[in-house]
Amino acid sequence: MTNHRPGTKSTPLYNSDHSSEHQIEALQSGSVPISVYGLGKMGLPLAAMYAKTTENVLGADVDPAVVEELNEGHCHVKGEPGLPELVAELVSNGALSATADPLEAAEYGIVHVVIVPTPITAEHEPDLSILDAVIDDIGSGLEAGDIVIIECTVPPRTTAERVRPALESTSGLSVGEFGLAVCPERTSSGRALRDIRGAYPKVVGGIDAESGRVTELIYGELTDADVLCVSDATTAEAVKVFEGLYRDVNIALANELATMADELGIDVLEAIEVANTQPYCDIHRPGPGVGGHCIPFYPYFVIAPFETPTPLLETARAVNDSMPGFVVEKLRAEFEAEGTTISEASILLLGLTYRPGVEEIRASPSLALAQQLSEQDASVYGVDPMLESVGEFNLQRLSLADLEDRLFDAVVVVTPHEEFESIQWDELERESGQLFVLDGRDALDVAEITDAGHRLYTIGVGGDRGV
Ligand SMILES: NC(=O)C1=CN([C@@H]2O[C@H](COP(=O)(O)OP(=O)(O)OC[C@H]3O[C@@H](n4cnc5c(N)ncnc54)[C@H](O)[C@@H]3O)[C@@H](O)[C@H]2O)C=CC1
Ligand SMILES: CC(=O)N[C@@H]1[C@@H](OP(=O)(O)OP(=O)(O)OC[C@H]2O[C@@H](n3ccc(=O)[nH]c3=O)[C@H](O)[C@@H]2O)O[C@H](C(=O)O)[C@@H](O)[C@@H]1O
């Protein structure tokens, strides 16, 4: 991969004297080198889409295995339709390559796209240490005419008050000499290429007007959808976080209503489905918890850094975090009702990642479930076809094949991977009495479970639908 820094074929976009048409032509012809920092579930598809458009992307990732796999034309991200083929094509034609040295990428790119993890700490504070490290790397290679685009999700005001001063101090340049903007990634794993290509508008907010203009021009070439330019960088950050807050609060509403199913004596899922026929109603789906490193984390990007009280966000987090406990209590009550105890039980968790088809375990409900069940001395087992190792979980790993000759007292459907459709429920048995099946995601065929003679409890439905 040759270096296209200014002085050769490179064409800076920020403060460019060229026409927009010339800038777009330069972008499309490989004269605008792009550096993408973070080649994970979001960064790799994004780098690929940038490379497809600009033919000149250097990805940077601190994980040597990620870099090595990419440079061999392999796609380390699972479950993204079209991505393996696209990565292979782009690497073979020289449009995409990777380095384990972010400093090399900082020297290389004119456009610097940042999409690294922005997790929270154990104390529920935003952890921007990785972002800080990348920004320091970029600052060391930043040149006049460059632009930095923050795609990772960050607390509002981060770009204006944390990223900008850091870039200015490490580069010795000021905004006005380089650009800085926010274009939050709104994509979902499992449909990343479709989403990035344009399932919905891209949102762009610049630290200054020229940054907004350049970023709008770039994403206008990347996406088929609209590019919505908002007032400033902080507004763009807030748009992304607000989407996640809406989802967490809405899921909490569904979960709270689901816990009422037994007392109401109705199928709450049916009530939700019919309520949602009203165009102003969009109650989400209840479940055994809310996982991933997005939805459960984003509320803390507002709760922690700001003084304004956020009782709704905190209550929603508490409701969603209580759902694994709701499942454990259901199991305990079931065993108690039959005269046994959870401490004598052998319990199987089906699905350990946070949602089907995505190889991510952060904040997965199964983490809390395994921990809480183990604390009650239950024997806990877990199956997940997406995971090679389950060291983070307090349970014993089983394969789907292992289920044939095992006896369980209860099975909990936490994350219904499509591989579980092959389970022969009539072959699952308990040493004595009925197997108790708790369906956390309304994923099972009721008749199949009850015809097999098992007891079924579905979150949101209660214990006796269809039987
Ligand atoms: N996963 C998702 O569904 C979505 C995630 N996002 C946001 O995108 C960002 C990234 O998320 P994911 O791609 O899911 O994370 P990920 O954990 O899948 O990938 C992150 C990648 O960054 C690399 N990395 C870590 N430190 C680095 C550094 N200092 N320099 C360069 N690379 C480094 C890691 O090795 C890893 O390959 C986060 O801010 C997240 O909130 C936004 C929309 C959707
Ligand atoms: C509004 C929205 O759909 N946001 C998406 C979300 O993707 P993510 O991969 O986190 O999946 P998700 O479907 O939100 O699920 C998160 C968690 O919530 C649970 N969940 C989800 C929806 C629901 O009705 N009930 C429910 O319990 C899921 O099981 C999972 O454990 O968060 C992504 C992100 O911001 O990282 C975002 O880009 C995605 O578009």
TrEMBL record:
<dbReference type="InterPro" id="IPR014026">
    <property type="entry name" value="UDP-Glc/GDP-Man_DH_dimer"/>
</dbReference>
<keyword id="KW-0520">NAD</keyword>
<dbReference type="InterPro" id="IPR036220">
    <property type="entry name" value="UDP-Glc/GDP-Man_DH_C_sf"/>
</dbReference>
<feature type="compositionally biased region" description="Polar residues">
    <location>
        <begin position="1"/>
        <end position="17"/>
    </location>
</feature>
<keyword id="KW-0560">Oxidoreductase</keyword>
<dbReference type="InterPro" id="IPR028359">
    <property type="entry name" value="UDP_ManNAc/GlcNAc_DH"/>
</dbReference>
<dbReference type="InterPro" id="IPR001732">
    <property type="entry name" value="UDP-Glc/GDP-Man_DH_N"/>
</dbReference>
<dbReference type="Pfam" id="PF03720">
    <property type="entry name" value="UDPG_MGDP_dh_C"/>
</dbReference>
<dbReference type="InterPro" id="IPR008927">
    <property type="entry name" value="6-PGluconate_DH-like_C_sf"/>
</dbReference>
<feature type="region of interest" description="Disordered">
    <location>
        <begin position="1"/>
        <end position="24"/>
    </location>
</feature>
<dbReference type="GO" id="GO:0089714">
    <property type="term" value="F:UDP-N-acetyl-D-mannosamine dehydrogenase activity"/>
</dbReference>
<dbReference type="Pfam" id="PF03721">
    <property type="entry name" value="UDPG_MGDP_dh_N"/>
</dbReference>
<dbReference type="GO" id="GO:0000271">
    <property type="term" value="P:polysaccharide biosynthetic process"/>
</dbReference>
<feature type="domain" description="UDP-glucose/GDP-mannose dehydrogenase C-terminal">
    <location>
        <begin position="348"/>
        <end position="446"/>
    </location>
</feature>
<dbReference type="InterPro" id="IPR036291">
    <property type="entry name" value="NAD(P)-bd_dom_sf"/>
</dbReference>
<comment type="similarity">
    <text>Belongs to the UDP-glucose/GDP-mannose dehydrogenase family.</text>
</comment>
<dbReference type="InterPro" id="IPR017476">
    <property type="entry name" value="UDP-Glc/GDP-Man"/>
</dbReference>
<dbReference type="GO" id="GO:0016628">
    <property type="term" value="F:oxidoreductase activity, acting on the CH-CH group of donors, NAD or NADP as acceptor"/>
</dbReference>
<dbReference type="GO" id="GO:0051287">
    <property type="term" value="F:NAD binding"/>
</dbReference>
<dbReference type="Pfam" id="PF00984">
    <property type="entry name" value="UDPG_MGDP_dh"/>
</dbReference>
<dbReference type="InterPro" id="IPR014027">
    <property type="entry name" value="UDP-Glc/GDP-Man_DH_C"/>
</dbReference>
<protein>
    <recommendedName>
        <fullName>UDP-N-acetyl-D-mannosamine dehydrogenase</fullName>
        <ecNumber>1.1.1.336</ecNumber>
    </recommendedName>
</protein>
